[in-house]
Fold this protein.
Amino acid sequence: MDIRVFDSDCEIGKAAAQIIIDCIKTKEKPVLGLATGASPVPTYKCLIDAYNKGEISFKNVTTFNLDEYCGIPASDKNSYYTFMHENLFNHIDISEDNVNIPSGNPENVEEFCSAYDKKIKDAGGIDVQVLGIGRNGHIGFNEPAEKFTKGTYKVSLTESTIEANMIYFDSPDDVPREAVTMGVESILDAKEIILIAEGAAKAQAVHDMIKGAVSPSCPASILQRHNNVHIFLDREAAALL
Ligand code: GLP
């Protein structure tokens, strides 16, 4: 694991964006795995800057997002569809045809999920996957469980995750309790992974991910088994290492 501790989220953003920029510059058809949440926002800002400076184009880039809430429409202000468009896609030259975000409300969940996994495979797999981490060690929306999950599936969120997500919603009753997420195995299939964690609330999860046993009780710990992972942390998130 390439573990780096930075002084600011802006520096984390620069370092993470550089890996993605290198991928976009070197691959003919780059495939990016993208995450929502506060952690990757500075990275997306740096990517938008690089695009505005003419350093990179997203014309040949395909993206797959990790997850989406169930029970709210894509047009909702809190959907991950809206988040990704506001924080990245609306500001770059990516073709909407190349943007893939799981549907949170598919008619047939199983069919949708296997088609999503197939689309990732058909695109050649994910070159660089961006990840955040939940306070309980979740990645995507893969919550602590008895087994590591495989492909994309519909999941019930834990109380800790629902509580963490509350800050974005007007009322606690509005917070979705289910989501569609890529599974742990699909995340691990990515050729290169960048996990970003910031703030003291992530310190225990970061510790367990890096120093703990590889266990589905801390889904992020599986990253110890991947051979090309970058973990970018601020000082607070790294406090227990
Ligand atoms: C949600 C998302 C995750 C994200 C996590 C952390 O649970 N599904 O993909 O990593 O939040 O978010 P933040 O970066 O805001 O702390």
